[in-house]
Amino acid sequence: MKKSSIPFLLGIIFLVLFGVQGAPIMRNDRCSCISTSQGKIHPKSLKDLKQFAPSPSCEKTEIIATMKNGDKACLNPDSADVEKLVKAWEKKVSQKKKQKKGGKQKINTFLKAKKPQRPRQKKTT
C-alpha cells in the first residue's frame, strides 16, 4: 500500500463514523400499537401513561397505559374517555411535582426554625 492511500482511507473512515453519530435515533421502525383497547381504565389502576406524538415512523398518536399489575394497553386517542384519563393523569403528575417542591420548602423552613436560640441577657445599667 502506498503512503498516500493510508491518510485517504483514514479520512473516509472518519467521515463515515462522523456521519453515523449524527443520525437521528428512531423510537421504532413501526407503530407500537397495532390495535387499541375499548375498555375503560380507572385512573387509580394506572402506574404510567405515555403519549407519543406522530413521527416519520408512525403517523398516528399513540397512548400506552401501564397498569399497576404490569399489563400494558394501547388506548384510542380519539376517545372522550381516554382524553379525560389523560387530563386526570396530567393533573395527578403535576400535583406530585408540586408536593415534591413543597416538601423541600417545608424541610428548609423546619431546619431554619430549629436553630438554637441563645437566652437573652438582661441589660445592666
Automatic annotation (TrEMBL):
Q: Which CDD domains does UniProt cross-reference here?
A: Chemokine_CXC
Keyword field = Chemotaxis, Cytokine, Disulfide bond, Secreted, Signal
Does the UniProt entry include the keyword Secreted?
A: yes
| GO process terms (BP) | adenylate cyclase-activating G protein-coupled receptor signaling pathway; defense response to virus; immune response; positive regulation of myoblast differentiation; positive regulation of myoblast fusion; positive regulation of release of sequestered calcium ion into cytosol; regulation of cell population proliferation; response to bacterium
Q: Which GO terms describe its molecular function?
A: chemokine activity; CXCR3 chemokine receptor binding
Q: Where is the signal peptide?
A: 1-22
Tell me where it resides: Secreted
InterPro entries assigned: Chemokine_b/g/d (IPR039809), Chemokine_CXC (IPR001089), Chemokine_CXC_CS (IPR018048), Chemokine_IL8-like_dom (IPR001811), CXC_Chemokine_domain (IPR033899), Interleukin_8-like_sf (IPR036048)
Q: In which family does this protein belong, per the annotation?
A: Belongs to the intercrine alpha (chemokine CxC) family.
* Pfam families assigned: IL8 (PF00048)
Q: Where is this region: Disordered?
A: 92-125
Q: Where is the Chemokine interleukin-8-like domain?
A: 28-89
Xref: PROSITE patterns? SMALL_CYTOKINES_CXC
Question: What is the name listed in the Swiss-Prot or TrEMBL entry for this protein?
Answer: C-X-C motif chemokine
Disulfide bond is among the record's keywords: yes
Name the GO cellular-component terms: external side of plasma membrane; extracellular space
**Top-level taxon:** Eukaryota
Biased region (Basic residues) positions are: 94-104, 112-125
